[in-house]
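User: Okay, second chain of the day. Same drill as before: sequence in, structure tokens out.
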Amino acid sequence: MTGVQTCALPIFGATRVLKNLMTAAGAALEIANAKRTDLEFWISSGRNEGAGSVVDAVKQMLSGLPHVRLIENGWQTWPQFRRTVRHMHLLMQPSYTESFNVVTADGVAEGVPSVVSDAIDWAPDSWKSPVDDAHAMARVGLKLLSSRWAPRQGLNALKAHNKRALAAWGDFVGN
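Assistant: Same drill. Structure tokens below.
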């Protein structure tokens, strides 16, 4: 991120309380302040699953702050979304619960690491942060932004997960 004037840090996915938007927004602010850059905080829009008040709280948190822009990204086709992800610096995916987290996998495919919680168990340990600690998320995020190895670690973790999943599926169906 050397020389970057704006740091693009999104939390993508359906807007649900369990996605942990507020903590992600706080961590994104801290990362941008530490990097002394403007912040573009991207969130998904158009699929609110009960988190309207959380989205309102994020808007209030970021409203009026100099050098901060909230971008609401509508739902896109998968190729469009992958192009959007490709232009991000870091994804924020600190969900309380997840079964897999496709957004993190899309980031891996585009070479973009994610700050995640333990709920995304397949992600590298170096990407994980306590779910309710914005300062810890910011520390993890800053390390990932400065690591040239983070994208490769994510790809290796995803490949290992897929290998285990395929073997488990084979066992289940009797192969």
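The first strand starts at residue 6 and ends at 11.

User: Thanks, on to the next one.
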